[in-house]
Automatic annotation (TrEMBL):
GO terms for molecular function: metal ion binding; metallopeptidase activity. The keyword Hydrolase applies. Residues 1-25 form the signal peptide. This is PepSY domain-containing protein. The keyword Transport does not apply. One of its GO terms (biological process) is proteolysis. Keywords: Hydrolase, Metal-binding, Metalloprotease, Protease, Signal, Zinc. Residues 149-212 form the PepSY domain. InterPro entries: FTP_domain (IPR011096), Metalloprotease_M4 (IPR052759), PepSY (IPR025711). Residues 86-134 form the FTP domain.
Length: 225
């Protein structure tokens, strides 16, 4: 009774808690979470057939590279439960079976959303087999580029002055849209590799205040046999 011509579109808020009949339903492949109203969960799996007619041509389409995926995403942005934006490639991996894993991050006005990772998996024949991700949608209703008042160099100095260290080994700075405790910010994420740890400092790009910071250095726990 399964049809090879039909698309399975999966939308789920908490996928592990939903019954199969609810998870594998045709329709948009993104839906806002009831428990987390600023989060859209995106999930689609080709192998889960369903009798309902698909709302996109995803099953028949070939995705040969990231650009094909990004164009499909932009053309069907509302099907993903989003209003605007595009994707940025973060890495592309292939396995021994010929599958390709396109790791992407959602961006608005060309600025990546910190909590906006989506992975697209294609088969050896370039057909889409799996999509999974969670996107923070708190930034869709505002313009962000015109809010930037701080330069990268100024953000770096703000971050340096907010941590204690003697030697700086490396640094990296990138612009992000970052949600902290339900409030959206445009920030510079300043990564500082120092003698006291690998620090991630989120500097408000509007006024230079520190939105958040944490030390990414792994903690080694000694255990006795």
């Amino acid at each position: 009774m399964k049809s090879k011509k039909l698309l399975t579109v999966i939308l789920s808020t908490i996928m592990t808690l939903l019954p199969a009949s609810a998870i594998y339903a045709a329709g948009p492949i993104g839906k806002k979470s009831k428990n987390e109203p600023q989060i859209t969960t995106i999930f689609w799996e080709q192998s889960k057939e369903h009798k309902k007619k698909s709302t996109t041509n995803i099953k028949e389409k070939k995705f040969n590279n990231f650009n094909d995926i990004n164009e499909f995403f932009k053309e069907n942005i509302f099907k993903f439960g989003l209003k605007k934006g595009s994707l940025k490639s973060t890495k592309t991996l292939k396995d021994e079976d010929g599958k390709t894993y396109y790791h992407t991050i959602y961006q608005i006005e060309g600025i990546p959303v910190y909590y906006g990772r989506i992975v697209f998996t294609t088969e050896k024949d370039s057909t889409m087999s799996y999509i999974s991700g969670r996107v923070d949608t708190a930034f869709e209703n505002e313009s962000w580029k015109n809010k930037i008042k701080l330069s990268k160099n100024e953000a770096i100095e703000k971050a340096k002055n907010n941590i204690t260290y003697e030697k700086l080994h490396d640094l990296k700075v990138d612009l992000y849209l970052y949600n902290s405790k339900g409030k959206p910010y445009i920030v510079y994420l300043v990564d500082l590799v120092t003698d006291t740890g690998n620090w991630n400092v989120f500097v408000n790009a509007e006024n230079g205040s520190i939105v958040n910071k944490f030390n990414n250095t792994p903690t080694i726990i000694n255990s006795k046999n």
